[in-house]
Design goal:
The protein has 259 residues and is of the alpha/beta class. The protein folds into two domains: 194 residues, 2-enoyl-CoA Hydratase, Chain A, domain 1 (Alpha-Beta Complex); 47 residues, Orthogonal Bundle (Lyase 2-enoyl-coa Hydratase, Chain  A, domain 2). The protein is 48% helix and 17% strand. It contains eleven helices and ten strands. α5 packs across α6. The two termini are 26 Å apart.
């Protein structure tokens, strides 16, 4: 498939999606459409075991939604714009493979919301974060009011969304918004190392663990525990479980095949 607003490269079991609208990589309808298509492609590609999402250039992961596109939309058109972002972001969030956001430069508004959909967030020490929509007379519309409180707590999320302040990578780490802060010139190297480490894990178990966590956090504890057992049984039925337990018993390194 040919992409214009993003780039998609697959290498050694790792796919890298690059938002390709430098220098600020604003998110528009075309980006959402192509992210959705890429997620579908990667979901069905068994050779891909892990995914990295990043932005072209060194100024921004994504500096927010494309205000030039949004400015003259009608309420109905804005609803469709938000729905397009929702479809794309939910596909990324629900992708049955681990997804790493490699965040260099600005991750504001929709850019921060895209990062929230990923399983890991690695930030360059030069990265900046924020949900500044309040300054435009609007609110986050691509998951910020929902995913951010679930990640860092409602009180902290209200502070960030109500004030609209922009904060650095160190603050993002202290908030629990990112997993790790890395020197900017090492960001992609570290992201690839993490992706390769994840790609070596058993794919079925990885998918089941992600599904159990992502779905379970929105369920009551009893229903979530039932879900966990169902996911455990699915992983237990895999060929990789046989390989993993066999390797453990034989005191050797497992050779997982993703089945």
């Amino acid at each position: 498939m040919t992409y214009e607003a993003i780039q998609l490269i697959k290498e050694n079991g790792v796919a890298t999606i690059t938002l390709n609208r430098p220098p600020m990589n604003p998110l528009n309808s075309q980006v959402f459409k192509e992210l959705s298509q890429a997620a579908d492609e990667l979901q069905s590609d068994a050779s891909v075991k892990a995914v990295i999402i990043t932005g072209a250039g060194n100024k921004a992961f994504a500096a927010g939604a494309d205000v030039a596109e949004m400015a003259n939309l009608t309420p109905v058109e804005v609803y469709n714009f938000c729905q397009a972002s929702r479809v794309a972001f939910e596909k990324i969030e629900d992708l049955g493979k681990p997804v790493i956001a490699a965040i260099g430069g600005l991750a504001l508004g929709g850019g921060c919301e895209l990062a929230l959909c990923c399983d890991f967030r690695l930030a360059a020490d030069t990265a900046k974060f924020g949900q500044p929509e309040i300054g435009l007379g609007i609110i986050p519309g691509a998951g910020g009011t929902q995913r951010l409180p679930r990640l860092i707590g409602a009180a902290r999320a209200k502070e960030l969304i109500f004030l609209g302040d922009i904060f650095d990578a160190s603050a993002a780490l202290s908030l629990g918004l990112v997993n790790k802060v890395i020197p900017a010139d090492s960001l992609m190297e570290e992201a690839r190392k993490l992706a390769q480490k994840l790609a070596a894990k058993p794919a079925v178990a990885m998918c089941m663990a992600k599904s159990a966590i992502n779905t379970g956090v929105n369920l009551d504890i009893s229903s979530a525990l039932t879900l966990e057992i169902q996911c455990f049984v699915t992983a237990f039925a895999s060929d990789d479980r046989q390989e993993g337990l066999g390797a453990f018993m034989e005191k050797r390194k497992p050779n997982f095949m993703g089945k």
